[in-house]
Amino acid sequence: MSSPHSPQFKSANSLAFAHFLRSGERLTSAEWFDQQERKFNPYHDEQGRFTIATGAARMTAKPDETKPVRTRTKPAATRQHATTAREAETRPRRIAEIGGYPETGKTSWRSANDLAFSAAANHYNRRYNLKPGDEGYRTAEFMKAWAMRESGGEGDREAFLSDPFQVNNPGSDWDDQKRTRAGLRKGEKMTPAKSAYAALEWLR
């Protein structure tokens, strides 16, 4: 066992106290040191180095046998957290106010369909593989301006919040081709998203 004046023994004083705080078992420094020494690997060579078993080669490698230490690089970002420019570009978003159609006070409802308009334009462009500059490419701003002309007047709030593109007005402008071209049923209950998707297909 190490001398009471050795650094190892002095360190055992604090470790024995820490052991008491964790377990409630009070040990003297010598008892703690003896207890820890019994846990050591009994297999070692004449120089005190650990081996696998008596007479076996020691576990530590010679300096020239060691492999170069490789620095661990940070793992690649997962797809969940990696946002490409394309993904950012097609994410539903708020749309700027259209000139002549203020969105404050009693007409603040004009911003209520922004996400639906943006999502519909993104879906349409992906479906037909359209990119900026292509003929037929639709933007969120185009959708919002179109909807303002159709139902964005001050007295059209109810229409704007149900069928903003007025693509399925009961009994007014129904065309049976809207069933196959726009996926609509005559007189069905409309939502801003359904109106936007159907209007784009009908326009196409």
Biggest sheet statistics? none
The first-to-last residue Cα distance is: 90 Å
Which strand-content bin applies to the residues? Answer: under 5%
Mean pLDDT: 79
SS element count, helices: 8
Point out poorly predicted stretches: none
Q: What is the H/E string?
A: HHHHHHHH
The backbone outline, from C-alpha atoms, is elongated
Structural class: mainly alpha
Helix content: 25-40%
Instruction: Give the beta-strand count.
Output: 0
- Give Rg in angstroms: 37 Å
Q: What descriptive keywords fit this protein?
A:
204 residues; mainly alpha; 8 helices; elongated
Structural account:
With 204 residues, the chain is mostly helical. Helices cover 38% and strands 0% of the residues. It has helices at 7-23, 29-37, 85-89, 114-127, 140-151, 157-160, 177-181, 192-203. The protein is elongated, with a radius of gyration of 37 Å.
Layout of secondary structure:
Blueprint: H1 7-23, H2 29-37, H3 85-89, H4 114-127, H5 140-151, H6 157-160, H7 177-181, H8 192-203
Helix pairs in contact: 1-2, 4-5, 4-8
Task: Describe what is shown at a glance.
The protein has 204 residues and is mainly alpha-helical. It has helices at 7-23, 29-37, 85-89, 114-127, 140-151, 157-160, 177-181, 192-203. It is built from eight helices and no strands.
